[in-house]
Amino acid sequence: GSAGLSHREPRARQGHGEEGDEGCSRLYPGHIPTSPLQKALLAGGSAVMALYDPYRHDMVAVLGETTGCLALPNLRDKMKHHPEGYRILRERPRIRLSTLDMSRLQGLPDGSLGREYVRFLEDNKVSPDTRMPPKFVDDEELAYVIQRYREVHDVMHTLLGMPTNMLGEVVVKWFEAIQTGLPMCVLGAAFGPIRLSARKLQVLATELVPWAIRSGRNASCFLNVYYEQRWEQPVESLREEIGIFPPP
Asked: I want to staple 231 with a disulfide (CB 3.0 to 4.6 A). Which of 114, 158, 175, 248 is the partner?
């Protein structure tokens, strides 16, 4: 059961970690060991840059890793105590072009998760391979949790019916902030609207944010869905299963 995961030691503690430049053990490929002070400096700098340019995904990624010390363990625990989430933690699936059968997904019926996900990628000219791997999370299992969060972000855009423009990103961040408690999401939800026009702000405040908050509170944890095994499921059916209200 879950005891197997809960007692798993990080790779470095098992003697499999790589030594860093200063003798610090690297817990997974690409890991950069950092002190609390270094994390605070990285968090402050990345927050400033992310607010200045919300499309600096590298800075948003650093902010998420250096400020998620409380939210990530909570998300991991939610996954451990859910059958489908527990399978995801054990099997470590990845959503990347190398793991996706794009031809099969394109051939699925309109309205299915797989077909609509590919349509979202094509319409918004985005790729799942642009999601940065974690570097500053000092726990191998939590590093996977934030990697999983990043890789299902576009799936959430698909389920929520939101594009990748600033308005759509803010709405998704409100939903994710309620669901995850990640400071990065809270910051994006709170300060993202600064660049929006008055008309979009009105739509955001009167329709989209209230819907995103209600959906976020009503929905089960979106990390507990094995999306790779749900590509054929209709989007409307999956929304209903998770608890996401129909988009306004």
From this structure: 114
